[in-house]
Amino acid sequence: MEKQNLTVRKLPEPPEAPEEPDMNSVYIKAYEGKVDDLVKLLAKVAGSKDGAKIIKNLPGFEGKNAVKDLQKNPEVFIKSFLKNADDLAELLDTVQDSKLGDKLIALLEKTPAGQALFKEIAENIESELSEYNEAMLQYEDALTAYETALDDFINPAFLPKQDEEAIDEIIAQAEAEAEAEAATEEELLLTEEEIVEDEEVTSDEEVVSDEEIVLEEEILVDGEVVVEEEITQG
Asked: What's the half-sphere exposure (Cβ side, CA atoms, 13 Å) at 132?
């Protein structure tokens, strides 16, 4: 039987996800030119109980008198943050990406200046992430296409017709070969059983012959004994 060649089907490859953005860099760019506005807003709410409680837990304001110093001279803190990029990045990350930052933004947005600042910051962040967001949309589309292609690859219902026919033929051929092999094994077993039976019959015949010889010997011995007894009596 001539074997058909199966269509070569290549396993689909998953798409590569876009690289995660460096959010510290994103925040730095989003707050560019706005750090002084942020610090000045902090200085205004530092006099309130809620404001002071939040600010003293922010990076850059850990000193014992930091809250009071901020109220008196916010420019010192502005200059400090602008000179130290690491401190500024830590502050902005806390403001934008922590529960403490959520409380701070909610407090600052109670003022019109706070609302305007964080509205602009949100727009800046969205703009900085636009390229990444677009890449993510493309990735999600590619991922959906990949998952569909993978289902097509592993699901027999989606196999090409020619592949199904070839596979059925291969399976039928394998079953036929298995049946032929089983029949051959059965014939070998029957032959072995016949050999064993012949050997058993031969053994039985040999046993019977041995018994006959023993009986003949016994009869002969008995005959000799009888003759000896008769001579003694005479």
From this structure: 12
Domain count, the chain: 2
- 137 part of a folded domain: no
- 87 and 26 Cβ atoms separated by less than 8 Å: no
Q: Is the pTM of this model over 0.70?
A: no
- The string of DSSP codes covering 201-228 is HHHHHHHHHHHHHHHHHHHHHHHHHHHH
| Domain membership flag for residue 16 | no
pLDDT for 39-56, tens place per residue? 999 999 999 999 999 999
Under a CB-based contact definition with an 8 Å cutoff, are residues 65 and 56 in contact? no
DSSP secondary structure letters along 64-95: TTHHHHHHH-HHHHHHHHHH-HHHHHHHHHHH
Regions of the chain with pLDDT less than 50: 1, 215, 220-223, 225-234
